[in-house]
Amino acid sequence: MQFRFVIPLIGLWLGLGIWTASAQTSPEKPEFIILQLNDVYEIGTLEGGKSGGLARVASLRDSLRRECPHVITVLAGDFISPSLIGTLKDETGQAIRGRQMVEVMNALGVDYVAFGNHEFDYAEEALQAALDASTFTWLGGNVRRKTSTGIQVFHKNTPKGPEPLADYVIHALPRPNGDTLHLAFLAYTLPFNRAKYVEYDPAAWEKLKQDYQQAKEKAAYVLLISHQDIADDEKLAQQMPQLPLIMGGHDHVNMRKTVGNVLITKADANAKTVFVHRFYREANRQSFTLQSTLAPIDAHWQAHPLVQEVVDKWEQIAEKSMLALGYQPKAAVIQIENNLDGRESTIRYQPTLLGQIIAKASQAAGSSADLGLLNSGSIRIDDQLTGTITQTDILRILPYGGALHQMDCSGDILTQLLNTGLETNHGQGGYLQIWPFPEKKRGKWYLMNQKIAPRKIYKVVLPAFVAEGKEKNLEFLQAVPSQELDTQRTLGVPNDVRQVLIHYLQKYGLNY
């Protein structure tokens, strides 16, 4: 679907940046094009090759460059982590930690990125390595580096020395008549991932307004690359109505919204779709028409051979690493007709077949357990699976793995766990997938049609991460003793939720 708007050039008399919808016919060729991606964790194709794939995006980019020589590729945060490949090691034993993403993005030709919250999942050394290896430009925005000596700007190490990241960048586009069109790109990242080495500007939106004022003195056109949820993008658009376009990430599903004169766009995660923004200069020379198109990345696009070569390299490294861990990457686990829905937009809001199967496999691994549960944030695939499910798919679903624990909870503690995990954490990674799923009636929780009794002891199987109180709002579980399961003795497999899930699916299928 295409959307068109007329956007004035910034100038003394156009300082308000007012723009309106237009039905005018655009010139034949765009002045420049922006290719927008966001939340990309997978370098290869998804859904059995039906969607996604950064080598396909590279072919789209080449097609756009044939249409217009000025194509700017941006990624609105989240790519270093999480992914299955990122959790593995290469042939030298070195942890990969996002190196595959940077190398593929370099080959693709990404120009600018904003930080996403997942850029801070790993230790600072891994992020620094990603910065140093990047041929694209990172925008600092409101993100700063916290050190023992104070707050600093993140930097990239180059042969000439450390190069501080700029809060915004001016992009120069040479024009046929000999002059130059200058664009400015700002950046903003939600202050969500509170890594020890990261500081977020406490007055970030005010700083963003200051950056805009500075940038508009140098550029004809100012754009924002944002990584925050849509509600906050809409609030920001209300505060900065002079921004014609916010290219956002974080929500993982495609959307296009307008707030006053501001257009907000987000593509689907993992490059299932991308946004293509074409800017046409109007005949009056004082404005642009913006045509924004959501483009699916599917089998219509052939893989770019050079980028595919890099993708293949890392997928081969990943396969060898999985083999070394004792997995058979290509081995079929189960054949299904249902969709196993691991999309973040689903699993963090409601019980799903995938979530409940993992919870039931966990319960079955316990000793006469009453229920099994997991935090939905441990499911990182953000995809729907059907057909033949392989061991690689299981690892993609649960890239972090981890041991299972069993704890004895009083009914009071279990009630607190359910209230927090299903209500307080609704929409977050701490939302719980549970089997059997409880029901709430008149303010009381019921399990298998029996009201949870305050003093009764319930046996719960859950990930070590949750049992140790590391999940948001579930810190109170630290005070509840738990014991690691001995699944090697009872099931014949190591105590890792992925091994337990494979064992369960092979033995019982989707029987629940």
Could you tell me the radius of gyration in angstroms?
A: 25 Å
Distance between the termini: 41 Å
- Based on secondary structure, the structural category is alpha+beta
The tally of strands reads 31
> Which stretches are poorly predicted, pLDDT < 50 over at least 5 residues?
10-26
* Cα shape: globular
Q: Percent range for helical residues?
A: 25-40%
Output the strand order for the largest sheet. 2-1-21-20-3-6-7-8
The major pleated sheet works out as: 8 strands, mixed
Please, what is the average pLDDT? Answer: 92
The total count of helices amounts to 14
Walkthrough of the structure:
Helices cover 27% and strands 31% of the residues. It is an alpha+beta fold. The strands form eight sheets. The chain has an eight-stranded mixed beta sheet with strand order 2-1-21-20-3-6-7-8, covered by helices on one side. It is globular, with a radius of gyration of 25 Å. The two termini are 41 Å apart.
